[in-house]
Write a structure and sequence with these properties.
By secondary structure, the protein is an alpha/beta fold. It has four domains: 164 residues, Rossmann fold (3-Layer(aba) Sandwich), CATH 3.40.50.11040; 155 residues, 3-Layer(aba) Sandwich (Rossmann fold), CATH 3.40.50.300; 226 residues, Gcn5-related N-acetyltransferase (GNAT) (Aminopeptidase), CATH 3.40.630.30; 93 residues, no CATH class. It is built from 26 helices and 20 strands. The strands form three sheets. The chain has a seven-stranded mixed beta sheet, sandwiched between helices. Strand 6 and strand 7 form a beta hairpin. Helix 7 crosses helix 8 and helix 16 packs across helix 17. The radius of gyration is 29 Å and the shape is globular. The termini are far apart.
């Protein structure tokens, strides 16, 4: 009864201040689960959910399994039981925590805090990679979690049936001097709706970006604005990563205008790009979870468009997205507006649970302040070392610097990545740093070293070992059966502090990592990333070899994935040479088939640097080229010769002689075989005649 009374009192105090309460229930497994079931029944919450194993939850409480956490996005709960005995999933914890409304209770079930780090967490299976088993995964993440919970004074803590801590009893609600207008939850939300209406009625090409943490009413603002515009007879399009994610938008729109659903239509982003239906306004919800290239196409197709994104969300996408998307908007729009919703709707601004979730999952981690680095410091002024992750887990400021840097550099970084960072058995963390701050970091995964039988199974597709991207790709897609036998170091993440970019730190870090890997006996280093001209230029400038470009775009990046290698040993060089040869045997033909729509700038960069394998031009070819460039021979009569000449120019680098417009024509018309109309429009010509004239000039330069 003492625990129940303390929980009721804590919830009453939390409700008075529009907070959420937290109870951490630890001890023996069966005892904590039994107490949780009793509390769930006694509290008789209207909206309750149990996250964990099916047989543990009471019969009258909604159960969510580990693969179903996203089902609660947009929902509101009074009680959430998070069973960490079934595995602590950081992504699920972040996602579900935002579903509790003010006065709600989070009940976290776990082993005793001092024993938790050694608990064989079922989530270890997600982190383990061959040859490691789940038992080889460290407990650093759980140790940090337990330490932070032990230091948290705003929660109730029960261990083995004893109430060890209760939160301070403060019932006086905080003052709120500002009051929103009728129909709005906060003043922020009211202003956001006004800004959305201005996008629909104001100047064209003035995008709006709504940003906030979770629970600030972005979806409600979208819905209210959509409802008001629908009531005025306007057509509104809505897109998001999933249709389920916009249920709240439709609900709020219908409250404003019951007939809103007739004027408000949801479409997936890729369909919007293909079909481009007309609309008075396009609303893009949870934009950070949509690939940037897709967002760019939407931005160019729709003159009136607004985006919404979560900044410190469980997805780990917000801050990196805001940085990159801001750059895209600056490059494509004369004017755009960012509006931040600061005031929470479901709970008060000083809610302790929100602060706790941010702290546990490092959702608000930031890189070091720019003034921590000496102005103009050269790359050589930073120390290179491999971090000891046991020390890193105990050094919270350093860990937050590192993770904040990764979040800003890679907008797909999630809370689960923090657990991988601390516990991944095949992961190494390298940094360039000063005594006070981390300037750059590289995360490197140890891959390969399989036996001959396993290598053959990977090559035939019978086995796909988790966490070995490079050897699996080289074997299964490039047909290189020897790849899984070798030892590779994959650069998974590379991040340089925003204040220090373009000073050579990335180059120095990669060079230092390669030197370390070579000394440790690795056969090669490699990396795979979403291809873009700047990234391809970076890895090419380091002397790495491009050996693959994926046929399909990655769902995460919205780009084709490029794979680069840097060999160290004779076996590594043989692998890189074979991979490059196989790539070049197929890639030029793919460019006029399955990769025909590939960005020509990317295609050119993937072809560069292979003069030895460039097609040979015989005397007849040179005569045909002269006839095309100077004697008005039609291009269709010498297509094969033009293709060989173009490939030779690309692979040898001779294409650098051309102007950008001429390069574009050579790539699109000759290499990728687009029709004249498409090529002319891309190059800015009125039609075939001008494009053909420019192409003749380009070939004339190439043949001298």
């Amino acid at each position: 009864m003492e625990i129940l009374s303390a929980v009721i009192a804590a919830r009453q105090c939390a409700a008075a201040r529009r907070h959420r309460a937290v109870l951490v229930l630890t001890g023996e497994r069966d005892d904590t689960l039994a107490r949780a079931r009793e509390l769930t029944v006694e509290l008789s919450a209207d909206d309750a959910c149990w996250f964990g194993e099916r047989e543990r939850a009471p019969a009258n409480v909604r159960l969510l399994a580990h693969d179903s956490a996203l089902q609660l996005l947009g929902a509101e709960l009074d009680l959430l039981v998070f069973d960490a005995w079934s595995g602590f999933d950081p992504d699920a914890f972040g996602a579900l925590g935002g579903s509790l409304r003010a006065g709600g209770l989070l009940l976290l079930l776990a082993p005793p805090l001092h024993d938790w780090p050694s608990y064989p967490d079922p989530q270890h299976a997600r982190i383990a990679v061959a040859p490691y088993a789940a038992g080889d995964v460290s407990g650093r993440f759980l140790a940090r979690l337990a330490r932070l919970l032990a230091d948290e004074m705003t929660l109730l803590l029960v261990e083995n049936g004893r109430l060890l801590r209760t939160p301070p009893q403060r019932k006086t609600p905080p003052r709120d001097a500002s009051q929103p207008g009728s129909g709005y939850a906060t003043v922020d939300q009211q202003r956001a709706v006004e800004a959305l209406l201005q996008v629909a009625d104001g100047h064209r090409r003035r995008p709006l970006v709504l940003i906030s943490d979770r629970g600030r009413g972005k979806s409600a603002a979208f819905g209210i604005a959509a409802g008001r515009l629908a009531a005025a007879g306007r057509r509104i399009l809505l897109t998001a990563p999933r249709a389920e994610a916009v249920k709240a938008v439709f609900a709020h729109a219908k409250r404003v205008f019951p007939g809103a659903s007739e004027s408000l239509c949801f479409m997936p982003a890729d369909e919007l790009v293909r079909q481009a239906p007309a609309a008075d306004l396009l609303l893009v919800d949870e934009a950070a979870a949509i690939a940037l290239p897709l967002l760019e196409k939407l931005l160019r197709r729709y003159a009136r468009i607004a985006f919404a994104s979560t900044v410190h969300g469980y997805e780990g996408t917000g801050r990196g997205f805001v940085l990159r998307f801001s750059q895209l908007l600056d490059a494509t729009c004369h004017s755009w507006k960012r509006f931040a919703l600061e005031t929470p709707v479901r709970w008060a601004a000083d809610d302790p649970l929100e602060a706790l979730i941010f702290r546990l999952l490092a959702l608000d981690a930031e890189p070091a302040e720019a003034d921590a680095f000496a102005p103009g410091a050269p790359a050589s002024g930073f120390s290179f070392r491999r971090l000891r992750r046991t020390q890193l887990a105990l050094d919270e400021p350093r860990l937050r610097q590192l993770f904040g840097l990764l979040v800003q550099a890679h907008y797909r970084t999630r809370p689960l990545d923090l657990r991988h960072l601390l516990d991944g058995p095949n992961l190494s963390v390298y940094v360039l740093e000063t005594d006070a701050a981390i300037a750059a970091t590289a995360l490197v995964a140890d891959e390969g070293r399989f036996d001959a039988d396993t290598a053959r199974d990977i090559w035939t597709g019978v086995r796909r070992p988790h966490g070995h991207l490079l050897p699996e790709t080289l074997a299964a897609h490039q047909g290189l059966q020897q790849a899984p036998r070798l030892r590779g170091g994959r650069v998974m993440r590379l991040a340089v502090h925003p204040a220090l970019q373009r000073r050579g730190l990335g180059r120095r870090l990669v060079t230092s990592v390669c030197r370390q890997l070579q000394a440790e006996g690795y056969d090669y280093a490699g990396t795979s990333f979403g291809a873009s001209p700047p990234l391809l230029d970076f890895w090419h400038s380091l002397g790495w070899t491009a050996v693959r470009l994926s046929i399909r775009k990655s769902a995460a990046s919205g780009s084709h994935s490029a794979l680069y290698l840097q060999p160290f040993t004779a076996a590594g060089r043989d692998l890189a040479d074979a991979a490059r040869a196989r790539f070049q045997a197929q890639f030029p033909h793919q460019l006029s088939d399955c990769l025909r729509d590939l960005d020509s700038a990317i295609a050119l960069r993937m072809l560069l640097g292979d003069a030895a394998r460039a097609p040979h031009l015989d005397a007849a070819d040179w005569q045909d080229l002269q006839a095309f460039a100077h004697a008005r021979r039609q291009p269709e009569a010498v297509l094969g010769t033009l293709w060989r000449c173009a490939l030779r120019a690309c692979m040898s680098g001779e294409i650098a002689r051309l102007e950008p417009q001429e390069t574009l024509l050579v790539m699109m018309r000759i290499v990728q075989k687009h029709d004249w109309g498409t090529c002319a429009r891309a190059a800015g010509f009125s039609g075939r005649k001008q494009a053909l004239h420019s192409l003749r000039q380009a070939l004339g330069k190439l043949i001298g």
